[in-house]
Design a protein that fits this description.
6 helices, globular, binds phosphoribosyl ATP
Length: 105
């Protein structure tokens, strides 16, 4: 079990919990759209720190991004392992080759 899996387990345990006692429960109670919006906000804050090259703040905002990403996944019943499986499939395949192999729409 990785730290991210542990955090996912904690987040899933907050589904239906008292929103007054848990930030995660409060966020999940607002629905998947709000969770996605919050993930977007946190991502923008990380982008700003990356542009400013503030390494400490980027690490801090990066932690917020990972947490809110897991909350967004939980809100839509997507498991962290589903994301990791996609990453695992891509291992050893260059991004350029992966893009070229995508079906055209
Ligand atoms: N990793 C986190 C984590 N990262 C960030 N946050 C919270 O995310 C919130 C976002 O910060 P903001 O400053 O954007 O919040 P805000 O400005 O009040 O939000 P808005 O009202 O403006 O939308 C803060 O309340 C942070 O405390 C987190 N809350 C929880 N966790 C993890 O989740 C676990 C369970 O937490 P609870 O669900 O609160 O028990 C914790 O033990 C941690 O491991």
């Amino acid at each position: 079990m990785s730290l991210l899996h542990d955090l996912e387990t904690t987040i899933l345990s907050r589904k239906g919990a008292d929103p007054d006692s848990s930030w995660t429960a409060k966020l999940l109670a607002k629905g998947p759209e709000k969770c996605a919006e919050k993930f977007g906000e946190e991502s923008i804050e990380a982008i700003i720190e990356a542009i400013k090259d503030d390494k400490a703040k980027l690490a801090s905002e990066g932690a917020d991004v990972l947490y809110h990403f897991l909350v967004m996944l939980a809100a839509r019943d997507v498991a962290l392992d589903d994301v990791l499986a996609v990453l695992a499939e891509r291992q050893g395949l260059s991004g350029i080759a992966e893009k070229a192999a995508r079906p055209t729409s």
